[in-house]
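With this grant's support, we have paired protein sequences with backbone structure tokens. One protein thus recorded is set out beneath this paragraph:

_____
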Amino acid sequence: MMEFLRRVSKKKGLAPGALVYVGEKRVEKARIIVLDYDKEHILEKEVENVEECFPYKETSTVTWININGVHDVEILERIGKHFDIHPLVLEDILNTEQRPKMEDFDDYVFVVLKMIRFDENKNQIDSEQVSLIVGPNFVISFQEHEGDIFDPIRDRIRKGKGRIRRMASDYLAYALVDGVVDHYFVLLEKLGDALETIQQELMAVPKTETLQSIYELRRETILLRKSIWPVREVVSGLERGESSLFSESTRPFLRDLYDHTIQVVDTVETVRDMLSGMLELYLSGVSNRMNEVMKVLTIIATIFIPVTFVAGIYGMNFENMPELRSPLGYPITVLVMFGMGISMLVYFRKRGWL
């Protein structure tokens, strides 16, 4: 949280629309990959200069311009100027802490999503912002770093599988959003495996590490909920909006995608409830074990109270205590104390306290 506040503070005093990158620089150099296609032809290439993308604005084919690395402000300025993108939109693209949202600007639709993956090396959830600008015949996507979940979509375009080559840019935008949402299910499966492991530990002998795992999983679930919950509004806005960029043939797919987002949100809420229950179960187990320990210690102390009383009486060393001079005084006293302890143990067991 403090790191986030430090990042946002870089924009202090600047005018609205000022282009300042807010986030972590994840790649050294921005890469621009162009994928231009129609039903019969396809062209895929990596361009060195952003100006090479400009001719695709007016073509009759569908063009997907993917930019890996949004820290290069100059590239965004050039794209914004040529494609007539509002400065506030460019500002949101550069702010990688942006909340997922959708905005309709008549000539294009702006979408912000959170691509979430599980980092195997760090053993934690990693979040990346993905921004989309959907035009009449193009989609411009902005990502923080290379390596993502869009490779299956690229393969479908290259091989001409499905209907994506026959559809317009609105279907390409749907496919990209759908790829992000579908990956949430992959992440939820990993969370499910982690939940199962924690459950097994709770049923066995929960340790301090179990509590730490619960708290870490709760933190990741909160991050996941924060990223997923607004996506429902985004998809709903695309499906129910009045933008002419999304045709009636694409809206059924958006409705199906909306159902997927509802399912993801419900699953996340279920995981949150299960984690809360696990936390209560852990704390209850710790409390029960503490109660068992205290019960044993209380019983031991209770047994020794009368024994200590007898030992205290015969430890006062008064001269007129007749038992002090009796040859059997010591063994009788020990037997009495021992008998008192045994009698109390038998009584406790009959009462069900042991």
User: Anything to note?
Assistant: The longest strand covers residues 109-119. The chain is about 55% helix and 15% strand.
